[in-house]
């Protein structure tokens, strides 16, 4: 099946073919294949699910059911930088809800969404074990603590500046 999802090149599907080939005859291997496919593509869009369905001879509805059941799988493309706002108790009482609001306002996206340029995503999480720094946001696993909503534009600007410098 030809890829119609733009940005997914043949090399990625060739890698997926190898994974499917390795698991084809093993019973109960669907989760392993999906897990590896997510590792290859970064997420599991419908095109990838349909491809696996066809190659493994499994109904697409079954694959869709597995992907939506397990929190481990995502159908949304993640941004290069994921802001993970901690909504654990310590962070929440210190205002992480306000950080989340500001972040959504600044980036123009909601939780679980990605900006059109593919740069930013917003997620929420439970306690990340840095309560002493509450309220906390992690950006690609790097912890930023003691934040106030006014810090958010600077965090975004810093990343954009770094990206611009990388392009030049
Ligand atoms: S509650 Fe946010 S780090 Fe613990």
| Class inferred from helices and paired strands | alpha+beta
Question: What is the count of helical runs?
Answer: 7
Radius of gyration: 19 Å
Question: What spatial order of strands do you see in the largest sheet?
Answer: 2-1-3-4
Helix content range: 40-55%
**N-C termini distance:** 37 Å
CATH homologous superfamily designation of the largest domain? Glutaredoxin
> Would you tell me which CATH topology of the largest domain applies?
Glutaredoxin
Order of helices and strands: HHHHEHHEEEH
Overall pLDDT confidence? 90
Ligand species: FE2/S2 (inorganic) cluster
Major beta-sheet overview: 4 strands, mixed
What fraction of residues sit in β-strands? 5-15%
Which of globular, elongated, flat, extended, rod-shaped describes the shape? elongated
Overall structural domain count: 2
Low-confidence stretches: 1-6
Beta-strand segment tally: 4
CATH class of the largest domain: Alpha Beta
Instruction: Please give the CATH architecture of the largest domain.
Output: 3-Layer(aba) Sandwich
What does this structure look like?
With about 170 residues, this protein is of the alpha+beta class. The chain folds into two domains: about 60 residues; about 90 residues, Glutaredoxin. The protein has a four-stranded mixed beta sheet, with helices on one face. Strand 3 and strand 4 form a beta hairpin. The site of FE2/S2 (inorganic) cluster has 12 residues, from helix 5.
